[in-house]
Amino acid sequence: MATKTASLLMLTPLLALLAACDGEAPEYTVLCEGCCDCDDDTGDTGEVGSPIAKVSHDVVEIGLYCEAIEAMFSISNSGGGPLTLSAPTVTGDWTIATPPTEVPAGGTVDIYVTPGSTGGAGLVEFTTNDPNMATITVSLQGDADQAPTLTLGSIPPVVAPGASALLEAMAQDDESPTFLNVEWSSDVDGVLGTDGADSSGLIEHSWDGTLRSSGDHTVTLTTTDTCGNAVQEQFEICQNEGYTEDNIDLAAWDFSGSANWDATNEWVELTTASSYKKGSAFMTAETVDSDNVSIAFSFYAGDRQGADGLSLTAIDTTRMSTYVGANGGGIGYGSLPGWSIEIDTWDNTGDPGYTEPTRNEHVAIVIDGASTGNGVAFAEIHDVEDGAWHDMEVEVIGQQVTVTIDGIEYINQVVPEITTFPAHVGFTAATGSKTNRHLIDALTVENFVCDEVSEG
């Protein structure tokens, strides 16, 4: 591929030709077909004063160019009389500057040609009075640089907290796409990356949710070729608020009662398998909207007789006085303001004051710690206090609440009792005379600031 010629070449006379022709390195590529000085007549006709025409190049090739530049070829006359030249015929997107009309005997004239905005193939032709060379024809070739082309590929509209997303685009250029300068930038976070295209034109950038500001971003992808021609594409992407806690920052959490961070196993232990324990762990460094949040985590309940259970709780920070609620059937959240989603693994129906809807393990939505009642929604669930880890997802959008355990959707309904308040997200668990060990791991909390719900 020919090298593009910078526009500053216009600042000095462009007299350089192919090195093979004059022994000097050219500032741009000029190719000869066959040989230099090869268009020559057969010599003197025997007539006194007869011209002998000679042209320096059959083909002038300037390759790719950034802006219009001048290229040159020469016509010389080694005969005994003047060589007359007609007005030249020029075809293609080319022009000729001040064409000569005569070459004196023993003289040489330089002819400058300039490509237009598109260039391409052209031809310049003179008719002469040389009886052996009635026409002089020179082919012209040059290609004006074109701006790159850019096509966006896979762009996710929303990114979950802490998640990464691959942004893709395809670029092409009249040079190799590897020569392109590439920049991804956000109107919020500034320059995101400058990794270039590969040989196929693929451009990739990894969006890191841990580094990006929450909310809407207008991202601009700019590709610029070696001539400075640039093309841009823009798209919208939204980073949801939230946090992940695979490795707990102890300073950001409140551990109350029997709860603690198990640094060896890197999980939260709410209770040991001991009687009459209650523990809670709440993330206190950030608040989320109580009615605009998605929470995913893993839990473990087992090792003993099955009591009592655990809860995911969004505590109302405007009304709270403690992070620890009632033990036993209160599952550690009893009396706490806000909403709780309990995983109840013990049958309390025979206990005074409890009106649970079922004797079996169940999930229930409870408002303001009213743990002794039926809750505002419930569903029986599969065995989850089996000494194995289980995955749970809860989504609260307005008053629509969805609860999924191990991929099974147990609750998906409108809960009118859900209200708006700033919440700390946390977990509670409790035991009574019967016990279990209760653990939490792999927490992700997502506060929806984006219009479209993330798919993760």
Task: Provide a descriptive summary of the structure in words.
The chain has one helix at 19-22, and strands spanning 39-40, 53-55, 59-65, 71-77, 83-84, 89-91, 94-97, 102-103, 108-115, 119-130, 133-144, 149-152, 158-159, 164-172, 181-186, 190-193, 202-208, 215-224, 230-239, 241-245, 253-257, 260-262, 267-271, 278-283, 288-289, 292-302, 309-316, 338-344, 362-367, 377-380, 389-397, 400-405, 408-414, 422-430, 437-447. It is mainly beta and 456 residues long. The protein has three domains: 7-144, Immunoglobulin-like; 149-239, Immunoglobulin-like (Sandwich); 243-447, Jelly Rolls. Strands 20, 22, 23, 26, 31, 32, 33 and 35 form an eight-stranded antiparallel sheet that branches. Strands 21, 24, 25, 27, 28, 29, 30 and 34 form an eight-stranded antiparallel sheet that branches. A five-stranded antiparallel sheet has the order 1-2-4-9-7, with no helix packed on it. The longest helix is centred in the N-terminal third of the chain and has 4 residues, at 19-22. Mean pLDDT is 86; it is low at 1-42.
